[in-house]
Records
---
Amino acid sequence: MNISNPLRRVCAAGLCLSLCLCGCTLLEGGDTVQDAGETPQATHRVDIAQPESIDTAGGREDTAVYSQDDPDSLVYFYVTVRMGTEAEGTNHTFDEVKNAIRFVNSAHVDNSVYAEALVQVGDENGPVSGMLGYGQSASNATIRIRGNSSTTMPLKSYKLSLDDDAGLWRGQSNIALNKHAFDSSRLRNKLYFDLLREVPEVPSLRTQFVRLFIKDETAGQTEFEDYGVYTQVEVPGKKYLGNHGLDTSGYLYKAISFNFEMKEGLKNFDDPEFDPEVFKTILNCKGRQDNARLIEMVEAVNDMTRDINEVVDTYFDRDNYIAWMAFNILMGNIDTTEQNFYLYSPLNSQKWYFIPWDSDASLYRQERELKGGSGDYDDWESGLSIYWGVVLHQRFLKVEQNRLDLAAKVEEFYQQFSPQRVQALADSYNQVIRQDLYHMPDLLNLTVTTDEREELLGSIGEEITINYDLFQKSLNALMPFWQWSEDRGDTVHLSWGEAYDFQAKSVTYQVTVSQFPDMSNPVYQESGLSQLEVDLPKTVLTPGTYYMKVEATSEDGRVTRSMNKSQVNGAYYPGVYQFTVN
């Protein structure tokens, strides 16, 4: 039966509507395709990588931050220093800034004196268009002295803090300019951090050689004065975390005098007894102001009922921890027990990571010997025994497998950072700064002759092998200990820790007490002791100042002394403990 055209059109329209409602489109020839509004059936499955756990990736930095750095160059800083306002705390002359001492009686003192500054960056001729501070006349920063013991030296280090509206320099608002007054090479710090960039387990810091010029308007200067060569080192803070792909909302502390023990000042910010000034003598909080996670970790470290590997696996990134320790050991960076490191933890992770800081004492052994300072250090101040005085490290290193893992990482680094490679890098850096160092003002305070400096630099790579060999020796050495005294009325109680032996040999002790730090003319001496204490009557120790030295000897002849060190009239006496009898 034929259907009229109008009816045919109605049927066709109905068919189209039906197909549309079914999610299909009618094509010429009667074919249909699936409507774009319907979820298609998968015809091909792609491989998607599983995301890493925050506990494995939380401390891994984004190394792209180093891509714009030019290690073989000098950057020129021009800093105009001005008297600021009392309200801002910058109403000081530059002389007052320079003369602020931050190290008294061998301890850090928070003595910060600020002035205003205009910071500009350029080349050897002056500030350059497009660079920080160019064309500006108003101050854009503050300046203060930085460092601890170095503040007592003629040539100072400085910290420039850029104002919020000043912009950033290479993503940084805090610019540390380090003089490295004790380091005649002036390149050890940069060498350390540039090598560390190749260690994926440990975040490093950006560094840059800088030539500094200062115009002191507080003294009426109208021309810039040459302050010589510095090393600019990135300061860990929230901007650092962001620049390195780390968690800007996380926890970050700078160690001031922190040995992972529960000290009296280690309290949370909301604790009624929290004293911020006391806390700053232990740690400086640079991140989230909440110490609960930190305190929990410290309590776990000091809980002797808990297995130390369980504690480390819970609260630390094991790979970061071992790599940090191994790298410092190979570089001979011995001043890393209670300071010169940061602790970082992402907000949503329980793990803590070590970030190094201030490493100009690395590869320094031969210079120390040249300057006559080798006698200031004892034999135990090398290898793994460096870390024996810190409860976390001591507990960790008492486990044999942990020592084997550390030894394996030291071996890996020794192959990666060979003496030849380190020497070549040091030589290339020396080419950048040598000419400027051998002129004023650096020449006046170089602390060695130019020939001695060249000789030291020519053997700096050898220190890698020296440190490697000392580490191997320390694996079989007696571990050092601490000494103490206690006044008990009619007697003085003298005690000392155990000289721990990985080989479990028997150990005896010799105790010497004298009124002189060189232990001459002893008032008491006894050897062959197996106990860790003696009591001396005050008929032997009359009121006055005394010095105690305990030496431990294993049955096979290995010897170690205590980690105590006394300074008398400018001279250091390793292994000597000073005490007073009333």
---
Amino acid sequence: MPETISLSRPKRWDYPFSEESNPPRPFTDTEIDALLDMAPFNEMDASGFRKSLSLRDILKNDTRRVTCQSGDIIVRRGDWGHSAFLVLSGQVRVDIERPESSFPPSLLGRKSPQRRTLFESIAQVWKNPPAPESRTVSHDVDPRIGSRNKDGETRIFLQDVPSVLDEYRTAVIQPGQWFGELAALGRTPRTATVFSEGQTELLEIRWQGLRDLMRYDKNKAITNEVESAFRERALVEFLRNEPMFHGLSDQKMEQLVENVEFRTYGEYDSPKPFKDLAKQGHENNFENEALIFEEGHYPNAVFFVRSGLARLSVKHHHGQRTAGYLTPGQSYGFHEIASGWGKEVAVPYRYSVRAISYLSAILIPTHIVETVLFDSQTSFNPDHSNFDSQSFVPFTSEEEMAVPDQLVDFLVENRFIQGTETMVIDLDRCVRCDDCVRACATAHDNNPRFVRHGPVHGHHMFANACLHCADPVCMVECPTGAIYRDFGAGHVVISENSCIGCAQCANNCPYDAIRMVQITDQQGHVIVDEKNQRPLTQATKCDLCIEQLGGPACQNACSHDALFRVNMNDSQTLNDVFVR
């Protein structure tokens, strides 16, 4: 019988958010009292919070203090957001230019992801991997920026703030205002760069804490502020990022903004795992999912997903069949409105749209879309590619139709269309040598991160490896933020330091791509819970070999070209893999 070591089972707040700073930056009890006396926390109804998850405990454990000097870059456009910020004192500036004219990458201190050298790659055979993901600053950057070390933390800063303010358009965020909350809650990249102007103090709250503040506060103090801030600061940027609204004049954009409707559907976080909700939707013909649009009805609005996931379905015999999913940033309804423009009879919605669990969206009424887009266009073409690159487009074009209908049905019914890096194995070429599994083990300290097994369609297997979904629902209920997107490539990874083994991510994953494994110490002793002596577990999954020199080791190790990583939203890639 193997030797064991007893430890207490990790809990959510064993690793307070402040402990992730170096040195830790917690708020004292006196400072927590002061926070509770200021807006928006003094406007909350504390009675709605659980005893084990009180308002005070959330502020104490899910927040940390951030102090900034003039020019410090706080968040950068394109980084994946895991937290939101409240300005306590001083002020910060937000870049409000469109992406193509905003701060250049060099001014933000960006650099290519650091891969291991050839020697480091070879050394993995006898050496453990280095510490978890870290970020370093390149020295080959814009001369207008610098780096400084404060309290052991390296920070990028703008050396000449006045010249940056003169050259680029920015807006002021003052004390009592939030920023970064949209990316944190929506698990999406930051849409703007924010930097401090003068000495600034911020409260940073990880998204799990912000989620709970919004979930349990009956007065909706933060929820109302988030909606107001989005309309005031981010709505124009959100709309301008949509291809259908490119080139709109400021006057028409203002008209669009004035008529936007904010909608939420479902409960913020259902106690049921997402996978159970999805399964329950199929079993009950989606009756438990909030209906947003219904197939065959008049198209009264264009629908944009801000956060969450929506299901598109069509009538099939006496029930419904899933036709696709909408993820954050995608839209639906424009093609119907455009196709019916100028005709005597409107083109109805082709699909029903339902919210799976909680969904936040914006709607733009049809008459507003027609006014700002069509009235001024003498030769509008509804099939123009500039208008549909972000909207839901089913497999209907000539190029996409090359993919067999049976395969399309399989991909949709199994929700593989979410995958941006789906592992597909051609069983006609695979010789079952398991070189892919051994290569994965070598790259991860002798611990393979996937199983060469999974659903099969024809001669293709869809292995139980992380798909790195467009909207990773595995992150929805992680209490500690242990599963997150890395800052660079956006791959979904798991931090061993903060995973408490609750298995919420594994339960939510619809693809069985996350495994719960027993953990040991460096001597091989099994680590058990000191209370019940049961082995402790942690979640593991494919991280696309994010630190490896050559990328995914599994794919590189396949000598028969049987293993592919496929973006299921790229029709050309689907053709290359499945129709050849």
